[in-house]
Amino acid sequence: MNPPYKKYRSLRNIGDGLIKKDEIVEACKFFEKLFIRNPSGGNIEVDARELEEVKTNTSSS
Questions:
Q1: Torsions phi, psi for 16 (to 5 deg)
Q2: pLDDT tens readout for residues 11-56
């Protein structure tokens, strides 16, 4: 079985609904910064410290 962090090297766009926010927060335990591919081109840089705010401010859907 692959180490958990392998799964997070290829995270797709958050907005497509395939990635749950808690998975991204989990990924940030392994990486300080994540680069999430944006379908319209380029990457979205996600800072682990900012994600703590996302986790706090977002209610479960």
A1: -80, -5
A2: 544 444 555 666 666 766 666 666 666 666 666 666 666 655 555 5
Asked whether the beta carbons of 55 and 22 are under 8 A apart, the reply is yes
Domain total in the chain: 1
Question: Within 10 A of 20 (CB to CB), how many other CB atoms are there?
Answer: 12
Q: Any idea which residue has 């090297």 for tokens? A: 9
The DSSP secondary structure of 3-60, one letter per residue, reads -HHHHGGG---GGGSSS-HHHHHHHTTT-SEEEEEPTTSSEEEEEHHHHHHHHHH---
Range of the domain at 37: 4-57
Question: At residue 46, what are phi and psi to the nearest 5 degrees?
Answer: -120, 125
Q: What is the pTM of this model?
A: 0.26
